[in-house]
């Protein structure tokens, strides 16, 4: 089934760094750091959908993904489904509420493979469901528990450069790497030996080099691991600019985008972790509300879930649309 939906393209008003939810936005994550050179300013240029149950409408949208054809995939959690939106605006619903094959309970995230398969994290049923490019159910894997092939709260997903699937299991405080067929390949979890732990992981991104970025709400930080699961860097700390990281995205230049949920903003950091911008407003439509998902469009613009307003926004750098 498909339908058309309307979107609103807004004007050139750009958000200005300032205060969001009572949290000050410093000029850079560390004191005394030199002022970085000017960088592109990001602004919201498109608003997609709004609250509701129809096609192109959302109820608590969470994770986002973009497939190889440029279609936007939305984990429409409160409506217990995933929605696929084409660049032309055609909308298809994937899944419905329930516990059977092809049914979901509060999906939290979605990912798309190069072959067109869609992976939906069916959090309420503690499993991952796989659909083909036409939205037809193919298979599922996982069950509730703490074992290697089990989940307690699957919360976020990303596809690695080799096609493997990285899944954040917030309930078990770990990130697992899976074969697309549904076989676990490795687990990144609490490690005394490596002196790190996950407090409340909830977002993940994997770069072309295989580096794994994990957003951790409890640590108020983004942890960066090598492809071999070795902790390399940490962006943020309990006293940092980052307040409530719920999702993370990294572009080809190393720019880091963080959905800072309760701070009601998107943070844009350079490859060295310095704050470039805090996007807090959708132009004249007002402030963001608990953003919780990020994904990149083929043109480099960024989709975000404006979860508290039950809509999707698209940001672009100044001079782009």
How would you describe the overall organization of this protein?
The chain is an all-beta fold and 321 residues long. The protein is built from no helices and 30 strands. It has strands at 3-4, 7-9, 19-20, 23-24, 42-48, 61-66, 72-76, 81-85, 90-94, 96-97, 103-104, 109-112, 118-122, 127-131, 137-141, 154-159, 165-169, 174-178, 184-188, 201-206, 212-216, 221-225, 231-236, 245-250, 256-260, 265-269, 275-279, 294-296, 302-306, 311-317. The strands form 8 sheets. Strands 1-9-8-7-6 form a 5-stranded antiparallel sheet, with no helix packed on it. A 5-stranded antiparallel sheet has the order 2-5-30-29-28, with no helix packed on it. It has a 4-stranded antiparallel sheet with strand order 12-13-14-15, with no helix packed on it. Strand 18 (174-178) and strand 19 (184-188) form a beta hairpin. The protein is globular.
Q: Which percent band covers the strand fraction?
A: 35-45%
E-strand count: 30
**Radius of gyration, whole Å:** 18 Å
Amino- and carboxy-terminal Cα gap: 29 Å
Summarize the biggest pleated sheet.
Answer: 5 strands, antiparallel
Secondary structure: helix percent:
under 10%
The strands making up the biggest β-sheet line up spatially as 1-9-8-7-6
> What value does the average pLDDT take?
86
Helix and strand run: EEEEEEEEEEEEEEEEEEEEEEEEEEEEEE
């Amino acid at each position: 089934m498909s339908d058309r939906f309307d979107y609103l393209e807004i004007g050139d008003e750009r958000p200005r760094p300032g205060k969001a939810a009572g949290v000050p936005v410093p000029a850079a994550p560390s004191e005394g750091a030199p002022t970085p050179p000017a960088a592109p300013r990001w602004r919201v240029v498109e608003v997609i959908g709004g609250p509701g149950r129809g096609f192109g409408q959302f109820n608590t949208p969470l994770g986002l993904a973009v497939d190889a054809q440029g279609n936007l995939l939305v984990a429409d959690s409160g409506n217990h489904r995933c929605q696929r939106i084409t660049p032309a605006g055609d909308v298809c619903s994937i899944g419905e509420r329930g516990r059977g094959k092809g049914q979901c309970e509060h999906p939290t995230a979605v990912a798309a493979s190069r072959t067109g398969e869609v992976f939906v994290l069916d959090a309420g049923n503690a499993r991952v469901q796989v659909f083909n490019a036409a939205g037809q159910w193919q298979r599922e894997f996982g069950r509730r528990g703490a074992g290697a092939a089990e989940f307690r709260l699957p919360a976020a997903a990303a596809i690695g450069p080799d096609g493997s699937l990285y899944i954040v299991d917030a309930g078990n405080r770990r990130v697992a790497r899976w074969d697309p067929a549904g076989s676990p390949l490795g687990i990144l979890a609490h490690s005394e030996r490596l002196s790190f732990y996950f407090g409340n992981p909830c977002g993940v991104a994997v770069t072309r080099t295989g580096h794994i970025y994990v957003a951790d709400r409890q640590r108020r930080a983004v942890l960066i691991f090598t492809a071999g699961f070795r902790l390399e860097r940490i962006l943020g700390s309990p006293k940092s600019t980052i307040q409530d990281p719920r999702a993370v995205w990294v572009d080809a230049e190393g720019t880091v985008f963080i959905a800072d949920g309760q701070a009601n903003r998107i943070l844009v950091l350079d490859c060295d972790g310095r704050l470039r911008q805090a996007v807090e407003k959708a132009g004249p439509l007002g402030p963001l509300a608990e953003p919780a998902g990020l994904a990149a469009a083929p043109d480099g613009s960024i989709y975000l879930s404006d979860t508290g307003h039950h809509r999707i926004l698209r940001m672009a750098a100044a001079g782009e649309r």
